[in-house]
């Protein structure tokens, strides 16, 4: 039993490093921009580069194939080593082209993380521990940007942005050592073949797969806008010093993490007491996404204290959604199709990581203001609310045999 918790702790730590490393560029963005003489458009390209390879590897099922066909724990170790090496090397670069290439490499390494987490939990953790295990890893991914922003705000003014990247990269490389010692072993995590009854083509033809995929794209746009451009916004438009920016950004991401944990636990509790999954999951997701629109006034109000209060409110609301979104997918897909459904959904959803940073950099260069970028994020989060509450229908497992009959 102790080994379960040790493995889970290492998985949570890898999730934290995963999101700290993908969000670290935004924390040091203004310093990197000044030193390398980058435009906002170039900065937007850099902030989106990670997601090009990250989304493509999942959408094309490359990451899923590696996890299914090779020893999953070794695949995860290689992924962490690759993305940590890319992060470390970032602290040594001196040009836009090399930095862009390293962000692509970072996305390649991180693409195996979530498929690996899923297979390790299913293979090695008993059913009654998987809920807490998934929630803990998700909390780690939300705490990553929070801790990264806070550490960056403290390290960068004192030592420069390069030391920040070197420290995060070395921490990831150090993680690999205890993982190789304590990782699960045996046939359960070695190579296997996927025996699922629903073939990949049939899943692709299911309309609800694309509803959740597009819905995740719309909500991810909101999330990736926050983790890539909130720190530069606070520095450039709100004139926050680095330390104040770090505290505000960290508090925002922490609010999402805590809200997700509480909302996930509360929704499970309500379902256990007799409420339907459709009512509970869709209510949390819909209300969370709708109240996330509190983000828009943040770009319109001069009063800093009121603006920061609204930002916290938007983040708490968004956490209500993130604590339930994958539960919605798992209910619809069922055990036989959950892996491949999630692969498609994540592949499409993470394309928002390309769109949000790029569009924000472009629009800020064109207008000189962040308001249009805030407006775009809010419009897409409302679209996500409509997809997850109206278009998705009842939350019950899809009968893929019936889907095949209807489509023939």
CATH level-3 fold name: Growth Hormone, Chain: A
Gyration radius (Cα, Å) is 20 Å
Compressed to H and E, one letter per element, the order equals HHHHHHHHHHHHHHHHHHH
Structural class per helix/strand content? mainly alpha
β content, as a range?
A: under 5%
Count of discrete alpha- or pi-helical segments spanning 4 or more residues: 19
On the 0 to 100 scale, the average pLDDT is: 84
- Beta-strand segment tally: 0
Low-confidence stretches: none
How many domain modules? Answer: 1
**Straight-line distance between termini:** 49 Å
Shape type: globular
- Most strands sheet: none
In percent, how helical is the residue content? over 70%
Query: Architecture, according to CATH?
Result: Up-down Bundle
- What is the CATH superfamily classification? MFS general substrate transporter like domains
Can you tell me the CATH class? Mainly Alpha
Defining key terms:
408 residues, mainly alpha, Growth Hormone, Chain: A, 19 helices, 83% helix, globular
Kindly describe this structure.
The chain is mainly alpha-helical and 408 residues long. It has a single domain, classed as Up-down Bundle (Growth Hormone, Chain: A). 83% of the residues lie in helices and 0% in strands. The protein is globular and about 55 Å long. The termini are far apart. The model has no long low-confidence stretch (mean pLDDT 84).
Briefly characterize the structure.
The protein has 408 residues and is mostly helical. Helices cover 83% and strands 0% of the residues. It has a single domain (2-183, 198-407), classed as Growth Hormone, Chain: A (Up-down Bundle).
